[in-house]
Amino acid sequence: xxxxxxxxxxxTLLILGLASAVLSAAxxxxxxxxxxxxxxxxxxxxxxxxxxxxxxGGDHIEVRGIIPAGADAHDYEPVxxxxxxxxxxxxxxxxxxxxxxxxxxxxxAAKGATVITVxxxxxxxxxxxxxxxxxxxxxPHVWHDPDRAIVMxxxxxxxxxxxxxxxxxxxxxxxxxYAQKLRDTKTAIQALINxxxxxxxxxxxxxxxxxxxxxxxxxxxxxxxxxxxxxxSEASAKQxxxxxxxxxxxxxxAIFAESxxxxxxxxxxxxxxxxxxxxxLYGDSLGPPGSxxxxxxxxxxxxxxxxxxxxx
Length: 312
Known about the structure:
The protein is an alpha/beta fold. It is about 45% helix and about 15% strand. It contains twelve helices and eight strands. The chain is globular and about 60 Å long. Residues about 1-35 have low confidence and may be disordered.
């Protein structure tokens, strides 16, 4: 059973006790510098939110990202140290739209923290392949559209202004600078996509995570190996055979898989179709430090370069 399901069944006092025990141990070891730093203590549920918060907050905040780079956000299981971070937070930044619902079971550990959903007002869209997958709901992968990432950025900036008014000028300047960087990144990506012949601007992905990217830059999602926007879905033999037919009929040049998701079936399909497999895109995650894709703008540009190179 996933830990978040276990916590949902556990009494609130047990959750609080676990978090308090972890914090007490840290205090005894002298590792409690965050409380004395004077900085706003921020917990971000996803790696994208943590990155955006660091861009806005700079040295004025202390950020703890719950889901690390390289992890699959759809299958994350909180651990005891996550509860401790939540208990000590001033501000909790969450994604919403079902991506971090596991947080609901741990919020009992929060002691007076403000909880902000950073995607408020963002305009979610249905999944690109909702009809084919037989599902409904909204696609949570909004960070793949620079304009929507800017909405997330501005929501984070407002949350920090409210939490820490003396540093509002810094938050204003930082958020404005990074918003411009995202706009410049959008321009650079569009230039790359424009180099792809129009008839070849078709994507088959490992799971349906790139709908916002496709809409933003004039690409078409024609299929996904894993049906739906969650990596926890499974494709039937019938769905896999139908996708192979689509790949051949549409003359798709490549299948794009993510570094954080098992790409075994995608590789098999690519082999069967005789096309390229690109298996190191960043879908639900960012890249590790030093990869050039550890920021939202870096991730977007890294993905665009790989997509353009494979489709030209």
